[in-house]
């Protein structure tokens, strides 16, 4: 098991290998389909891509006293048309579920990134690792707004590493 804290460095990424369990702590950002469409055009996003982690999630509303509602990963392939452009701007780590396109994988290797997967169907459990949540961009998108999350020991698995390995082909 590997414990990582954001921001994620190239050195951190180089230590990750397919199939390893990662416990992630620090600041991560949420973004889904509609936010990605806007982000690729955004001149001055309200967060730095370099070393950042983006989690593909559309959380449910939170209950009183809880930072966020159920926060399970969404299917990642929908972000494939946009992810390479964000990686070229410094994005290093993406969290979601499911397989990605070959074009995404090649862009990830070229830009020294890594793709992590979180367990689908475990949104209520995953939300327990999120200690704060604040909408920072595109509030009009509701659940797809970009949020700044603070997480402690958020569990993931390395799905694609910088060496071209693929958990879905193991």
Could you characterize the architecture of this molecule?
It is a single chain. With 170 residues, the chain is α/β, with parallel strands linked by helices. The chain has a single domain (2-165), classed as Fe-S hydro-lyase, tartrate dehydratase beta-type, catalytic domain (fumarase, Alpha-Beta Barrel), CATH 3.20.130.10. It has helices at 10-14, 33-39, 83-88, 102-110, 123-127; strands at residues 2-5, 21-30, 53-55, 93-96, 114-117, 130-137, 146-160. A 5-stranded mixed beta barrel has the order 2-3-4-5-7. The longest helix has 9 residues, at 102-110. The chain starts with a strand and ends in a 10-residue tail after the last strand.
- Radius of gyration, whole Å: 15 Å
Structural class of the helices, strands and pairings? alpha/beta
Order of helices and strands: EHEHEHEHEHEE
How much helix is in the residues?
10-25%
Assign the CATH architecture. Alpha-Beta Barrel
Whole-number count of domains: 1
Strand order of the largest sheet: 2-3-4-5-7
Chain oligomer state:
single chain
% residues in beta strands: 25-35%
Q: Please, how many helices?
A: 5
CATH superfamily caption: Fe-S hydro-lyase, tartrate dehydratase beta-type, catalytic domain
C-alpha end-to-end distance? 19 Å
Mean pLDDT: 95
User: What would the principal axes of the Cα set say about the shape?
Assistant: globular
**Fold-level CATH name:** fumarase
Sheet with most strands: 5 strands, mixed, barrel
Uncertain parts: none
E-strand count: 7
CATH class categorisation: Alpha Beta
């Amino acid at each position: 098991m590997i414990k990582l804290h954001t921001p994620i460095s190239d050195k951190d990424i180089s230590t990750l290998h397919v199939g390893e369990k990662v416990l992630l702590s620090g600041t991560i950002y949420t973004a889904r389909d509609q936010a990605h469409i806007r982000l690729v055009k955004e001149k001055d996003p309200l967060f730095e891509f370099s070393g950042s982690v983006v989690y593909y999630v559309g959380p449910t509303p939170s209950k009183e006293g809880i930072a966020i509602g159920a926060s399970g990963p969404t299917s990642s392939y929908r972000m494939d048309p946009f992810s390479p452009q964000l990686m070229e701007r410094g994005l290093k780590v993406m969290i979601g579920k499911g397989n990605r396109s070959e074009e995404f994988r090649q862009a990830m290797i070229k830009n020294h990134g890594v793709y992590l997967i979180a367990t689908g169907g475990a949104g209520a459990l995953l939300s327990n690792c999120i200690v704060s949540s604040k909408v920072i961009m595109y509030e009009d998108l509701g659940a797809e707004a970009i949020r700044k999350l603070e997480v402690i020991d958020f569990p993931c698995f390395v799905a694609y590493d910088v060496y071209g390995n693929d958990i879905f082909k193991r």
